[in-house]
Amino acid sequence: MDNGLIKKKILYQGKGKSDYNDGTKVTFHIKTETCEDSPQLIDDSHRWSKPVELILGKKFKLEVLEACIHTMILGEVASFTIDKSLLSPYPLVSKTLREAYGETKVDKEKKPHHCCGMGFKEGLGYQDLDELVKTPKDLKFTIELVKVAGAGSYEKEFWAMTESERLESIPALKEQGNALYKERNYEAASKAYSEALGRLEQLMLREKPNDEEWLKLNEMKMPLLLNFSQCQLIRGEYYAVIEHCTTVLEKDPDNVKALYRRGRAYVEVFSPAEARKDLEKAARLDATVSPGCRKLLSQLANMESEKTMHDRSAYKKLFSSS
Fold first, then answer.
1. How far apart are alpha carbons 293 and 199 in whole angstroms?
2. Is 247 helix (H, G, I), strand (E, B) or coil?
3. Which end of the chain is less crowded, N or C, counting CB atoms within 10 A of the terminal residue's CB?
4. Beta partners for residue 144, in sequence order
């Protein structure tokens, strides 16, 4: 590749072929610097949290970079000197990569609120990138291709999925969480349920609240919240349990699982009135949970007695010392 605008130099030979199909996922390190006598370092992914990932053929904003990667093979390290006429999108791409992979985040107050036309009216939040917008320069990219995964051989990121794939991924994550729960891997199960809930929330944001599609998605959300709250209960995250079960009970006030789990969480954080209300209602609605509710109510009564005795002792010590 040497057409006057792009000059390639192989620094380390790789192995394999470079005939990548659309949908291939490539993982690479990238170092960007100016082409001056004293080069200025702009980006170096070795300083970021992880290498950059790119799915070929997905209309990456910096087409010239994707074209460069198409010429590389696995394990190859190469430098590409690219003319500034091909790099107008680079400052915005760099900002995106820094905020996706960089270890440090930009202060929200310093981020731009909007851009105007081809210029960035309030800046990108990075002085070096703002300077590149004002004064474009030829740049040298040093790229190390560390991993190549063919289309279909990897789990797609949520953003890269089609609408149907996104919807189908949620029950799959729920089943994954259920399997992990049965294995008593509660932390991993929590992560699976949490990821499924996050994806549902993203889909719901695109719908108008209480419209048909929104209601269908909300219906899918309820069992996930219950499963997630059960994991959180076992892991001692009681306030999270209260929050998620409350969301379920707002939709279904007689949901016994939500009442029982929230009641148990209220016991653990010692909120007697709330705990008693939930557990007594759960016992009335479903006789099968009555023994568990009675046990928790007995535990709550003991906790209240201990607190009363502790308070009396504290008062006695207070007055005896005066």
1. 34
2. helix
3. C
4. 29, 77
Token reading at 102: 């960089």
Contact 51, 28 (CB under 8 A): yes
Per-residue pLDDT of the chain (322 residues; tens, 9 = 90+): 656 899 999 999 998 888 788 888 899 999 999 999 999 999 999 999 889 988 888 777 889 999 999 999 999 999 999 999 999 999 999 998 998 887 544 433 344 444 444 444 557 889 999 999 999 999 999 999 999 988 665 565 655 567 777 888 889 899 999 999 999 999 999 999 998 998 888 888 888 888 999 999 999 999 999 999 999 999 999 999 999 999 999 999 999 999 999 999 999 999 999 999 999 999 999 999 999 999 999 999 999 888 877 766 666 666 665 5
| Whole-number Å distance between alpha carbons of 312 and 300 | 18
**Tokens 């917008």 — which residue?**
133
The C-alpha atoms of residue 194 and residue 180 are separated, in whole angstroms, by 13
Would you call 101 exposed, middle or buried from its count of C-beta atoms within 10 A (0-12, 13-18, 19+)? middle
Buried b (16+ CB within 10 A) or exposed e, 15-34: eeeeebeebbbbbbbbbbbb
Contact residues for 202 (Cβ-Cβ < 8 A; gap 6+): 158
- Which H helix or E strand runs over 204? helix 186-205
Task: Report the alpha-carbon distance of residue 31 to residue 142 in Å, rounded.
Answer: 5
Task: Say if residues 66 and 54 touch (Cβ distance below 8 Å).
Answer: yes
What residue type is 162 in one-letter code? T
Cα–Cα distance, 84 to 138 (Å, whole number): 4
Enumerate the β-bridge partners of residue 116.
119
Q: Which amino acid is at 187?
A: E
For the record, the structure tokens of 15 come out as 């192995």
pTM exceeding the 0.70 threshold for the entire prediction: no
Helices (H), the chain: 63-70, 90-101, 127-134, 163-182, 186-205, 212-234, 238-251, 256-268, 272-285, 290-320
